[in-house]
Amino acid sequence: MTAQLFTPVELGGVTLPNRIVVSPMCQYSAVDGSAQPWHQVHYGMLAMSGAGLLCLEATHVEREGRITQGCLGLYSDENEAALKPVIDWVRGWMPGVKLGVQLAHAGRKASAQRPWKGGGPLTQADAPDLPWTTFGPSALAYDPEKKWHTPVALDAVGLKRVKEAFVSAAERSLRLGFDVVELHGAHGYLLNQFLSPLSNHRTDEYGGTAEKRRRFPLEVFEAVRRIWPAEKALGVRLSAIEWVEGGITLEDSIETARQFKALGCDFVDVSSGGNAPGQKLSVGPGYQVPFSARIRKEAGIKTWAVGLITEPEQAEKIVAAGEADCTAHARPFLIDPRWAWNAARALGVETPPLPLPAARATSILPFKPKGTVAKAAE
Asked: How far apart are CA 368 and CA 179, in angstroms?
């Protein structure tokens, strides 16, 4: 009997060979948005994981939209050129792997320290040219008590600039050959900030009611959808709830997902929280899976489940029960870069292909992978 986790799934015009996604994971190791040798090693390693989709980290559409100085970007020709060898390497050695990228803008949570330096707001003590100006739907700091920067509320010119930046980054993603684009509308970043009554206090057509708060994220999606081909996939990551009284509710997110679907959204990557320092999470294995299940059922859209999904049997149960179409994993892949390959072994199914230099390892095992792949011999 085939494990459901290892059956194909269609996202828009893209067919993934299995339902395991390497979730976007910030590496904080770029230079002015440009990929470095670390990215070559990191994504090259994860391309051999056996996952059906490898999704690159939050890749920012504006320099000012980066979370930290080390965040990846696609806002310049230099960024695009630096990322191309990474993509080319993966395509050459693992041609069957589908590649995605998460396009993001940090909004009021930009201009921050890297996590290993505390993750708080940058100050002038960090460098002469820091911090930089941040932007948001309203002039409300993420956490005033910890002296987070008060963002500049985006005016009509700023809204147009940000929307065009998302489109430009999507165009660069298309030239680079990505199969999937995910717009980051979760974790307290800009699109999430517009959706939330906690961070959006506008009184114009982009604030007030839930319908008005959705308007800018929907406009951004619609603009990207116009240039992103139907034979590829376009989705959104949402924070389904905010874990704070007065924040986004699951019912809000179900309706948001319905409206994204009406514009041609192919999937929703269902997460939660990140927009309020006072959030009170109830964390445990698969704690966000019920949100994915509700959105999938009630909005009628494909979903990814994320959050403390660490064991193959757990992921299989989620997919088999119809609670999500894919399971997305971040830290499990950092601990075990062959997580999907080992999941196939644990579930008793054929393992995904390996490149020829690595496939020799199977000679000591009582099973064989589905096949081997290799760059054309020189």
From this structure: 28
Q: Say what the pLDDT of residue 368 is.
A: 55
Nearest Cα residue to 82 out of 48, 127, 34: 34
**Catalytic residue ranges:** 189
pLDDT tens readout for residues 269-303: 999 999 999 999 889 999 999 999 999 999 999 99
Distance separating alpha carbons of residues 192 and 214, to the nearest angstrom: 9
Contact status, residue 135 vs residue 107, Cβ threshold 8 Å? yes
> Which residue bears the tokens 């792949």?
373
Q: How many CB atoms lie within 10 A of CB 81?
A: 12
Q: What whole-number percentage of the chain has pLDDT above 90? A: 88
pTM of structure: 0.95
- Lookup result for tokens 């994220």: 217
Q: 169 CB contacts (<8 Å, ≥6 apart)? A: 59, 60, 61, 74, 75, 103
Kindly tell me if the per-residue pLDDT of 52 is higher than 70: yes
3-state SS, residue 185: strand
Strands 20-22 and 9-11 turn out to be unpaired
Check if the beta carbon of residue 276 is closer than 8 Å to that of residue 140: no
